[in-house]
Phage head-tail adaptor (Collinsella intestinalis DSM 13280), 112 residues
Amino acid sequence: MSLIATESVTVITPSVDRDELGEPLVGEPKREEVDGVVVCPGPTSDLDATRPEGVRVAFSVFFPKGYGADLRGCSVVVRGVTCEVVGWPQRYADEHAPGELNMVAEVVAVDG
């Protein structure tokens, strides 16, 4: 039993198919349910005066050691909100991550 509550998120990986000239082909993205994730709310903020109704919502999403996919360019559905992964999340070395989690991804959604 863990002292930290976990939840499920959905990772959406875009299609990476290319035609014979190397141009990207639009395909159906892959959706994968991931259990055992720790979600921490991050900072929220209003957008500037040009978008008075706009808000930015961020989460830190900690993935379990058993999850090995690359998150670069992916989206993550967190508590019903589809967020874009920021940057290229990397895993911690095993000696630096003694618990069940070894990768944190910053995700963000902008609305308005």
Summary: The chain has a mean pLDDT of 88. DSSP finds no helices and six strands in the chain. The CA atoms of residues 2 and 100 lie 9 Å apart. The chain has one domain: 7-109.
